[in-house]
Amino acid sequence: MDFNTDDAVSRRIKAFTDRVSMLKENDLYFYNQPIEEIRGGAKVLVHGREMGMYASYGYLGLLGHPRINEASRKAIDKFGTGTNGVRTLAGTLTLHDELEETIANFKHAEAAVTFTSGYVTNLTVISTLMGRGDYVLSDKLNHASIVDGCLMSGAEFRRFKHNDMDDLEHRLEQIPSGVSKLVIADAVFSMDGDVIDLPKVVEICKKHGAYLMMDEAHSVGVLGKTGRGIEEHFGLDDVVDIKMGTLSKTIPSVGGYVAGKKDLINYLRHASRAYIFSAALPPAQAAAANEAFKVILDEPWRVEKLRRNGELFINGLKSAGFDTMLTTTAIVPVLCGSDEQAFAMTREAQHHDVFVLPVVSPAVPEGQARLRATVTAAHEPGEIERAMDVIATAGKKIGII
After folding, report:
1. Residue 3: per-residue pLDDT
2. Of 72, 163, 258, 359, which is least packed with CB atoms within 10 Å of its CB?
């Protein structure tokens, strides 16, 4: 098909193609860069150059951990590289049961179920639980997978203002009595790095008889004294009905999970289309995830080091004059303003061996383009100081600070 014809699909494709071409011509395109080697968690080899990695989701520096690698190798030796099919039929291995038991214990839940990706987890769980006549209420800054799951469910979809508990309660008050209601929020917001007001959300949900779902993609390993997530962070235990998380960020594997009551998990195993019709997690990935949860508990120093590194990074960038919004976590937005300024900041940083990436419209509102920078437990303070110096120099050159 010729995508230069004058129809809506072709126009959309051409607009993006032209934008990418323009960025590449001006040395402003830094997406989809192949990483040649990962060196110790905090450094990577890109285009033959060693760079400090400040765009990683591996918050505790577990990628390449000897115990996790060994567990993965043993799983391949025992089970091979794939499974015999979907979980419901011949695809369930003892590894999958072990992983789900580990997750349930880690999250202080009765049971857990795993899926093939975090995106798929949100999509299928929301659309399996909710349907026409039900209501789903989602924080305005929730991840795209949550939004897509809400839309796919067919339920009445309402957004409340970001972390605004008065607006959440107001919207719940507008819902007719006698209908099912689900409130969903990220625990740590993936673009802003701030934390949902869980105690207040729990209070409001109980008052209005709403189920509560938390997406903990960016909070497991990050929040709480032992890294168990947002409930531990606020000193609460088992107050979230649907505890969702991923296996591809702090946990260096792939997949997603939901933990909760046994009846909920049993229902998802028999009603979720993504569970029924998707191949099971490969043995190596299931084993890696299982071991990673155990390493988090066995090496609590990682959680504390991450917290210190996050504070160093946030405070240092603020002192330099940057706006880091309301972040209190390892996700640190460095506001740049226009898309062009964010691209230019990225170019300056990467040319000086600091691997950061821009987030621009429409992923964030126009005028709020940013570097979405992250630190991990693998970084040393001296490395963070150097990265901040590079970013500050770039900010002065471009006129952001």
Report:
1. 64
2. 359
Mean pLDDT by 10 residues, the chain (401 residues): 77 91 93 93 94 97 97 98 95 98 98 98 98 98 97 98 98 96 98 97 98 98 98 97 98 98 98 97 98 98 98 98 97 97 97 97 93 97 98 98 96
Residues 196 and 334 occupy one common structural domain: no
pLDDT at 4: 66
Shortest CA distance to 126 belongs to which of 163, 115, 89? 115
Residue at 1 is within a domain:
no
Are the C-beta atoms of 264 and 77 separated by less than 8 Å?
A: no
Residues marked active site are found at 190, 218, 249
pLDDT of residue 95: 98
State which residues form the domain around 332.
17-53+300-398
Q: What is the CATH number of the domain that holds 233?
A: 3.40.640.10
Domain count, the chain: 2
pLDDT tens digits along 328-362: 999 999 999 999 999 999 999 999 999 999 999 98
Global pTM reads 0.95
Cα–Cα distance, 62 to 58 (Å, whole number): 7
Decide the pairing of beta strands 35-39 and 354-355.
Answer: unpaired
Q: What angle do CA 135, 277, 58 make, to 5 degrees?
A: 75
